[in-house]
Amino acid sequence: MAAELPVINGHGAQANGNGESATSFTVKAGLARMLQGGVIMDVVNAEQARIAEEAGAAAVMALERVPADIRAQGGVARMSDPRMIQEIMEAVTIPVMAKARIGHFVECQILEAVGVDYIDESEVLTPADDVHHVEKHPYKVPFVCGCRNLGEALRRISEGAAMIRTKGEAGTGDVVEAVKHMRTVTAEILKASTLSEPELRVMAKEIGAPYDLLKEAATLKRLPVVNFAAGGVATPADAALMMQLGCDGVFVGSGIFKSGNAAKRARAIVQAVTHFKDPKVLAEVSKDLGEAMVGLNVAKMDEGEKLAKRGW
Amino acid sequence: MTQDQFAITVGVLALQGAFSEHLQLLRQAATVKRLSALPDVKWTFIEVRTPEQLALCDGLIIPGGESTTMSLVAARSNLLEPLREFVKVHRKPVWGTCAGLILLAESANRTKKGGQELIGGLDVRVNRNHFGRQVESFEANLDLPFLRSEEREDFDTNRVPFKSVFIRAPVVEMILPAYEGVQVEEEAKDETVVAPSRKPDSEEAKKAIGAPVEVMATLPGRSAALPNKVATAHTEDKVGDIIAVRQANVFGTSFHPELTGDSRIHVWWLDQVRAAVGAI
């Protein structure tokens, strides 16, 4: 089970704020803490946002196309139309997140001006910069970013991310990559926690992570910010699996609105995340959900089709 | 008293939100020297997700999180009615922070379309997301007069302010008359939801009915400075926004002491629980 995230985020994460942040890291990371034990659902319009809210979503992610459609339709995937995001913000009272392209700091400025509650600098959209990520500390709005391993997670936190999620493989309905990414992060933290300081410095160099943040994760035995599962969660069992692997909450993208009975599946996944340790509840909520999203088998995909490879 | 009477179990509602943070601060508070000469107790702190777990509790914290999520999940987990009984029938000590304050209010506005279920217990109306969205979230140093104690100088928030965090926070926009039944005038308002009433089950609990709402803390000047000030019934900003209230067994704060590492309010509240358990 996951180690506790101490009530004060460690000094490493804040010390990297270099004093320029408009809003303190506590306030940014605090909203992520309020989302713990919750489900954040991808929605493409106000109607879906209302279904998500009635199902008990802790927040919604406003975007024009869910990852499964981005995959199917191809082309360049960009930040959504601000009008669509605003319509969703007006339709619900829960927090609204929106995605910006990796490295596209102007999309982030626009989303902040629109007033979204969280920005996801996301590999699901087509990257705008193949070297740099957005410098996230100066924004008032907090950021969530994806990771496949510990080094990537700590680089994002160092840039100012106040929340982390696994990348998984979005739009597939195949949970295997999310599991791989969560297990990789956990195994690397476990390894770091056994190392002496000189060895830890070597590891920091090897995984390309700031030493202070690596040391913090090693001491806490977990990431120093809230960490959600994302990318391929399609069933209540998938969601509970990620929770039992130590995630603090779950993003569900295409899994809900690409399934047969979206409202019922959304409710079931919310119940599954609260009662993730109770197989009887999980059995009950897994009944009669209808068709799950069809899904793509990640093992049969070309490497070039994998969204998780985006990000540096 | 037997040894058993000194064992007290406090639960934290763990349906969704920052319950881990409250559990950490409760454990920290239990190690701090207490404020008064009440008897020492053996504390047990548990996560509450089921009616069975709630039944073990002598006191309960409802944490921050999304109040709509918590009320929907509570209803689907058959926990909503047991929570109402815990607060309004058995009148056990309860503390709600942020979303928890919303759930403990008898009346709330700016809820989601179609409204939301409330537990109730505090005769107040809360205004959800009063200060605005996340970009309006903030930290503030608070003076909390109720923490002052002759025993403990470090609990004087004039000397050592209580640094606190407000995240998409609600405020108490109106103190309502202390009714025995449902808040009928509130119920008649559009866009305002109310909690159902429940009959208290003991003489002790009946005394709680009609107990006044005490304003425990205010935040001066913040609403006036808001760029897009929302119209609310509570416009007399000179006194500031009401951010902490108590009525009999129910305590609510609109901010998050659980995000600060400062356990002084938890120490104070555990003393209230200790006194309540001792008194029954």
TrEMBL record, chain A:
The record's listing under InterPro entries reads:
Aldolase_TIM (IPR013785), PdxS/SNZ (IPR001852), PdxS/SNZ_N (IPR033755), RibuloseP-bd_barrel (IPR011060)
Looking up PROSITE patterns in the UniProt record yields: PDXS_SNZ_1 (PS01235), PDXS_SNZ_2 (PS51129)
Biological process per Gene Ontology, one example term: pyridoxal phosphate biosynthetic process
Family, per entry: Belongs to the PdxS/SNZ family.
All copies of the PdxS/SNZ N-terminal domain together span 25-230
Query: What is the top EC class of this enzyme, as a single word?
Result: lyase
> In the Enzyme Commission scheme, what number(s) does this protein have?
4.3.3.6
- Tell me the protein's name: pyridoxal 5'-phosphate synthase (glutamine hydrolyzing)
What's its job? Catalyzes the formation of pyridoxal 5'-phosphate from ribose 5-phosphate (RBP), glyceraldehyde 3-phosphate (G3P) and ammonia. The ammonia is provided by PDX2. Can also use ribulose 5-phosphate and dihydroxyacetone phosphate as substrates, resulting from enzyme-catalyzed isomerization of RBP and G3P, respectively. Also plays an indirect role in resistance to singlet oxygen-generating photosensitizers.
Active site residues per record? K99 (schiff-base intermediate with d-ribose 5-phosphate)
Single GO MF descriptor:
pyridoxal 5'-phosphate synthase (glutamine hydrolysing) activity
Q: Where does D-glyceraldehyde 3-phosphate bind?
A: R183
Q: State where D-ribose 5-phosphate binds.
A: D42, G171, G232, G253, S254
Q: What SUPFAM superfamilies does UniProt report for this protein, alphabetically?
A: Ribulose-phoshate binding barrel
- Which reaction(s) does the protein catalyse, per the Swiss-Prot or TrEMBL entry? aldehydo-D-ribose 5-phosphate + D-glyceraldehyde 3-phosphate + L-glutamine = pyridoxal 5'-phosphate + L-glutamate + phosphate + 3 H2O + H(+)
Keywords, A to Z, come to:
Lyase, Pyridoxal phosphate, Schiff base
- Biological or metabolic pathway of the protein: Cofactor biosynthesis; pyridoxal 5'-phosphate biosynthesis
TrEMBL record, chain B:
Could you tell me which PROSITE patterns the record lists for this protein? Answer: GATASE_TYPE_1 (PS51273), PDXT_SNO_1 (PS01236), PDXT_SNO_2 (PS51130)
What is the protein name given in its UniProt record? glutaminase
> What is the phylogenetic placement of the source species in the record?
Eukaryota, Fungi, Dikarya, Ascomycota, Pezizomycotina
**SUPFAM superfamilies, per database record:** Class I glutamine amidotransferase-like (SSF52317)
The record's Gene Ontology biological-process terms are: pyridoxal phosphate biosynthetic process; pyridoxine metabolic process
| Record Pfam families | SNO (PF01174)
Q: Which family does it belong to?
A: Belongs to the glutaminase PdxT/SNO family.
Question: PANTHER family under this entry?
Answer: PYRIDOXAL 5'-PHOSPHATE SYNTHASE SUBUNIT SNO, PYRIDOXAL 5'-PHOSPHATE SYNTHASE SUBUNIT SNO1-RELATED
Q: What does UniProt give as GO cellular component?
A: cytosol; glutaminase complex
What's in the keyword line of the UniProt record?
Answer: Glutamine amidotransferase, Hydrolase, Lyase
* Species assigned in the record: Xylona heveae (strain CBS 132557 / TC161)
